[in-house]
Every structure is written in C-alpha cells, then in structure tokens.
UniProtKB/TrEMBL annotation:
Protein's name in the database: Glutamine--fructose-6-phosphate aminotransferase [isomerizing]
Origin species: Candidatus Taylorbacteria bacterium RIFCSPHIGHO2_02_49_25
Active site: C2 (nucleophile), K605 (for fru-6p isomerization activity)
Lineage: Bacteria, Candidatus Tayloriibacteriota
Cellular location(s): Cytoplasm
One GO BP annotation of this record: protein N-linked glycosylation
Signal peptide: none
EC code(s) of this entry: 2.6.1.16
Regions crossing the membrane: none
One Pfam family per UniProt: SIS
UniProt main location, coarse: cytoplasm
Matching PANTHER family: GLUCOSAMINE--FRUCTOSE-6-PHOSPHATE AMINOTRANSFERASE, ISOMERIZING, GLUTAMINE--FRUCTOSE-6-PHOSPHATE TRANSAMINASE (ISOMERIZING)
Amino acid sequence: MCGIIGYVGEKEALPILLDGLRRLEYRGYDSAGVAVAGKKGVKTARAIGKVAVLASRCERKTLSGMAGIGHTRWATHGKPATRNTHPHTDCTKSFFIAHNGIIENHEELRTELTKKRHIFKSETDSEIIAHLIEEEYRDAQNLEKAVQFALLRLRGTYGLAVMPNVLPGKIIAARMGAPIAIGLGEGENFVASDAVPLLPHTRTVLYLEDGEMAVVTAKGHAVRTLQNKLVTRGAEMIEWSADNTQKGGFPHFTLKEIREGPEVVRNTLRGRLIMENGLANLGGLQNITQSLHNAKRIIIVGCGTALHAARVGEYMIEEYAGIPVEVESASEFRYRKPVLDKETLVIAISQSGETADTLEAVREAKRKGTMTLGVTNAVGSSIARETDAGIYNHAGPEVSVLSTKAYISQLVVLVLLTMHLGRERQMSLSAGKRIAKELEELPKKIEKIFAQEKEIKKLAKKYAKYEHLLYLGRKYNFATAFEGALKVKEASYIHAEGCGAGEMKHGFIALIDKNFPTIAITPETSVYDKMLSNIQEIKARGGRVLAVATEGDRRIMRLADDALYIPKTLEMLSPILAVVPLQLFAYYLTLERRLDPDRPRNLAKSVTVE
Ligand code: M6R
C-alpha cells in the first residue's frame, strides 16, 4: 500500500527522496510528502496526487539537508487531502513519521492523547504515532526508548520511518506486519517500504522482521527487537537492477511488462529443466524433499491474480501428479478454521511476497504445523522468508499495478512444480519430456501473439464502447476467464465478469444481449466442442463474441464475430498463451478510454493491509 523512503548520508536528501517516491508510486498515489532535516530544523512539503505535483512544489533551498523521509499515500483513514498527507508530526514538531499500515487502536489512543491536550491536525490513524512518541520522549528523554515505548502501545500493522528534529542525522525504522527494508550504502543508508527505490543506490538490503526496530545513521545501523534484544541478521543482495524499474522507452509499465513475457518465461525456466529426464530441478525445495514426497494434499492460497494462477495450478497438479488440491482465497483461509495436518502442503502464491492476507495464511498454516511453500517474485520478501521452502519467479520487478508478467511466471513455476511432483508419482518420462519441450517453445509463441498487436488495438477500439463484458472459459482456461476480466475491470473500469462456461446457463445467460459481448477463450483443447456450444447459445441470443482461439481454427472464424489467435500448445500450457492477448486487450481498452493503466483508481500494487 503506502510507500516509504528515508535517506541519511552525505548528499542532499531531497532529490533522493523524490526519485524514491517516483519509483514507489505504484504503492499509492493519493498524495505524497517529504520531510527534510536541515540546518534550520525539519521542513516539509506535501501535495495531493502524483509525486510530480509534490516535486513541482519542493523548493530546494528550503528543503536542503542530508537526512529526510518521504511517503506516497494510499488512503485508508481520512480522504486524500493535504492535511492527511504524510509525513505527520507531533505538537512540538519534534518527530516526523511516515507510516504504512493500519493502527487498530487509534481511536482509544487519540482520545487518551486528546485528554492530555495533544492537538491532531489530520484524520489519519498514523498521526497518533508522532504524538505518542512526543509523550514518551517527555519521560524517557531518549529517542530510541521513546519510539520503542510508543510502538509497544500500538495494535495493528506498521512499516514506519521516524525522523527526529531533536537528533538530526538519524532515522528510526520499525516493522510490524508491513515490510521495511534497510538499504546499506557507503557513508549513506536508506529506509524503504520495499527494495525498488533502493536499487539506484544499493543492492545490499536488510529486511526487518516483525517487532524489530532499526536505528539508521549515515555511518551504520543497529537492529533491536522491541524488547531490546540485539539482532545480528545479515543483509541480502538483491538481483534486480535499477534499469528494470524504468519504462525503457515504453509509454507505460503495463505494456513494457506484458512485452517482457517471453524473457520472463526464459528467466523462470533458466537452469530448472532437465530435458532428457523430463524433470524440473527446483533448488528451493531441497529443505522439504521428504515432506513433499509424503504430501497427500495441497492447498494453494493467494489473492487476485495470484489466486487465478493457483486455480490453473490445481488443475495441473491433480491431472499430472494425482495429488488432491484445493484452492482458496488467502483472505478466507486465514479466518476460517481449515483442517490441516502434517501431510498437507500449503502453497502461497504472491508476486510481492507481502500481501497481508497471504502472509497471514502462511502463518496460520505454520501455527498448525503444516509445511508451507512460497511462490514469490520478490527475493527476501516476508512470504519468501517465512515459508519452509520457496520457488522464486525470477520475473524481475513488476511495477504496474496490473499483474501481467508475474502471472505468466507464476504459471510457469506451477508447471515446473507439477513436473517435480508428478515425475516421482504418476507422470511418465515421455509426458515429462513433452512438457519440458513445450515449455521451451513458449517464448517464441508469445512473440507470435505480439504480432497481432495492431489487430488487438483495433478490437479494443471497437469494444471500448461497451459497459459490460463477459469472459467465458472452461477447464484450464476457467481461470483465464477470471484473469482476463480482472485486468479489464482494474484498468479500464469496464464491468467485466469471469464465468466458467459450464455455469453460463445457470444464470449469466440472462444478461446476454447485444450490449453485453462475450470474450470466449476457446483454444483447441479437450473442451473445445463444449465452448463452441456456448458460443452458439450466446449468438442465438443476439450476443457478440470475441474468441481467443488456436491459429488456423476455421470453425471459430465462421462462428465468432471477432477472433484473436494463439499458437497451438499443450492444453495445460494454454492459459500461459491465452492470457497474453487478453492482457494486451485490457491495456488498449484502457487507452481507448483515456485512462492510465499504470495507476488505476483506488488500487495499490501491494495490499499490505487487510
Ligand atoms: O503481490 P501479490 O501477488 O500477492 O498480489 C495479489 C493481488 O493483490 C494482485 O494480483 C492484484 O490482484 C493485481 N492488481 C492484479 O492485477
């Protein structure tokens, strides 16, 4: 959700903070602000909307100093307004804070502090943190202790950066349920809500754990728990480069990341396929080899796009490895009382590795003694660290709020996992070899889909006028229907519904008329004829159909109003290809509606609060 950046070193902080905020904008773009500690104390600038607006308001002279914090906001408590924009401060302007998360006991703390004559300037839950520190500092007269005592009074989640006016050159960062990364440089150090804004400066990153607090200065850092125990964990090296987080000549991150599909498949597969044995070599599973061997049941959890990937994974694993699989939204799993045991494996899929519900689902599984496996893209993320074993996507940083390349890589990882589980169970050598060969062909096939980009653009022009779209798919492409619809809803605000084709007659068909077109995902698979019947039924009711079909399919050409084509592949791999034209279609629909696909309203890239 919100993005945080902090700098302390020997350079002017403002340009570093603004650059960091630009790179973090995908975490929230309701408003942005900075606080810089200079010779005349801490000065702030805040603005509603994009970081560019904030940058135009920042006077370099006033905001000069070598330490500072910045924040880009995704509003939870209090609407987007300057008064609600971080950094917030206390009554004496001694402590400036940037917070990501939700303080659940903020109302009672506010009442208590108001009685002690604290005056609040915002409607946010975050502001109480600054006042609490002020209150504790009065007694403790020690910054670290004041922050520590204040934090011990909070209930809820926070990723936090605190910059004092009283002791410049120091930032205190803390974490409880929302990520904080400390970037380690030479004569300078950083604090951030994720590693992306740190990449131009350093790739050496230390992630805080829940209940930890770091004191960061230009010369070093020290981490302690809130119970004052010294933490000596080492830093990690991030593989991503700063170039990966730039648009690289593309008008939007969304388009850049869709076009990275072929490269992403190659990177996800790199070094993992043993062609001659039809096997997948997944180093991250070494810890749990025996338990995987004994697994009798799998539950896959995730949210949004990751949940759709989970559904495809369910079909693959059941068909090829013969292990019963359940798929569940992480937000439900964490609150109901799932029956778990030692022979169950819980797989958590999350691009960011920080989605609050998915992380809590992992913790719930671990509390019950169940083995957990993370499929994440962000190295060192909370889910990557807290699961018993993991498989990284290697998709590179995904900046657009729309998850596109990460979805492709999640599906590829799930194929590899299916091979891994399947080959030691029921999958034959020839099936393993066939899948491995077809996986290697995917990048070229995705490139072929890109050749239709002009046609996709034209179709987007034609379909942008509709207010409703139905996405229909079956079996392996059941999830593709939901994923295609999600992309369109998120970015173009067209009402789109995913529907399993077999369910259509149980209700959805009532909506079909000439104003409610259907996108029918109809590659040549085992359910092709069933899909054709559905298309006939829609046509008979005056509905328009845009089909996603296999190249050379003449029957579809006669039946559907419009068609996009994907190359032939194995049925289990067809979702990896079928989603590509749908991602491009959603992108161009969004442009037709003159909207920004990188920054859809009300959304943030990483949902780190419930
Ligand atoms: O980082 P995660 O994969 O855990 O994120 C899960 C969802 O928030 C995410 O997929 C969301 O649905 C995307 N905006 C979809 O495009």
